[in-house]
Amino acid sequence: MPTVSSSMMEIDQNLAKSSSPGKGSPSEDVACADLKLLSSPQQKSPQEDNHFSPGGFSPHNKLDVMNDFMQLGTDFVTHGHNYSDLLVWPEYPMELDIYSNAMTMRPDMGHGYASPGGMCNFIMLPPSSVLEYFLKSYVRSLYGFYPMIFAMSLDPNEMVQNTQAATLLVLLMIARGAAAVPMAEARYLSAGLTETCRISLFDIIEKDVELSADPIALRCALLFTLLGAWSGDKWQMDIAMGQRGMYLTMLKHAGMLEPQPSMIPAFNDSTSTELQWRAWMHRETQNRLVYNWVMVDQELSLFHDTAPFLSISELHCPLPGSEILWLSSNSEQWLDGIQSVYGCTNNCNIVLYHLISLNAVTNFPEIERLARREGFEAGGPTYWELGLRHKRCIYQREEAIFHCGQVLRLLRSIPADKLPPWWSTATYRVTLILWTDAIGRLDPSFKTAMNDGSSPESGNAASSSVVAVDRVTPEDPALIAYLWSGDGTAVLSHDNGSAVSMDSPASILEVGIQTIDNGISTRIGDGIKRKLATLADSWSSDMIGALAS
């Protein structure tokens, strides 16, 4: 059975060729292999059906687009001369045990491309070449942050033959890969699959409570939480945040957080290397699942300004092992890795480190209240009020600017297709902190005092040096001098290297928008760009200039 191997990491987007369809791909004259679907014409979803995301897109409306997306096929990916399908998909729709009661509660979920009239438990998926592209997109976008694909080999055909939970996992992988594709149709597909899998996952766990401790089901829950929390759709984001506690409780009750015997294999003459490898692989998979949940819990808590559900005192299971061992494709490679490298390496996510550090020197909820102009006296904010609010928002200015600059530097250094799902939210966070610092320092008398303090007579002439905090590393001498003694002038930089003053609120917002523009297009990123642009208009230079009167 062909698999998706590590070569997928260097994917060429020219994947398929219409004249040479992949093995097992449906022929063009086969619309549906299920008689119920053939006898029941597909219905268009109503324009104004009931759904739970008022005023915005939700997975429960506009599913008509799927009817067109199903026909994309070779229009979505072009063909290369040496193309051959890595994935083999059956010539019939994938069968799922859809939560029928949920279909009754939400009549709009029974229309469109999914199950006509709510009478069928089949989901019609795009052509195999498109699914292959989405699966590669999933591996490429998440592997560096939530590594759960053993030996970089993924065989969806084998997975869907095992259990319903495994089938849901494949669909959620497709949904995650589609979410990373900057096409409206792909985003509709991702939203629809995410909601369908959420309902189905709830249903199968309700029917078989033992699945609440199943690693595959918990991995499905992890992928749904990631998809929903960073979807950009308020309804899905709210429900992902609301169900996070339930899934983490399932993880605890499954005993995966409990202490385990040593992960060091004990080799002797009677021990089979193959059995040792498979036992290690099983335990390592569970440990990685636990710490993936730890990362997601920490990230969501960080960006929602709430306390994590998991505490350090609850984590007794071993840290994930070396990547050399995890990427071994057989017992011989694994044994060589054990003999050459032993120990757990926990590469800290430096971006998250800087974001967590920012929480110690800033008050982000207060910063957002300032951006919304909450708590000001009638007549609008004055220089005096902005100065007071600055002290409540930013406790240590130099350290806050240092961490913000490093977040921007690190995010720019990551390839666009390998950025974490929360990267645009991180950009928004540091942009707003820097903007608040600039807004709070608009008082001309404050600037005059700063200039007097940096005059040659004051013995602080070194302050004239310029430090691009989003360009230099923490080891740079100029940055160290700025951080520890305040020497120098901190600036940001555009892509072309030109400096951006830290005293210009509008220019700082422009840098944030430009940074998001340079990354891969996502729905939540587009929303954040609009939010920053609206903020720039709300706090325009005309309004700021009126403060002096």
UniProtKB/TrEMBL annotation:
Alphabetized Pfam families for the sequence: Fungal_trans
Keywords of the record: Metal-binding, Nucleus, Transcription, Transcription regulation, Zinc
Any one biological process term the GO annotation gives: DNA-templated transcription
Domain Xylanolytic transcriptional activator regulatory per the UniProt entry, residue ranges: 135-337
UniProt xrefs under InterPro entries: XnlR_reg_dom (IPR007219)
Keyword Hydrolase annotated: no
Biased composition (Low complexity): 17-27
Region (Disordered): 1-57
Molecular functions per Gene Ontology: DNA binding; zinc ion binding
PANTHER family: TRANSCRIPTION FACTOR WITH C2H2 AND ZN(2)-CYS(6) DNA BINDING DOMAIN (EUROFUNG), TRANSCRIPTION FACTOR WITH C2H2 AND ZN(2)-CYS(6) DNA BINDING DOMAIN (EUROFUNG)-RELATED-RELATED
Protein name stated in the entry: Putative transcription factor cmr1
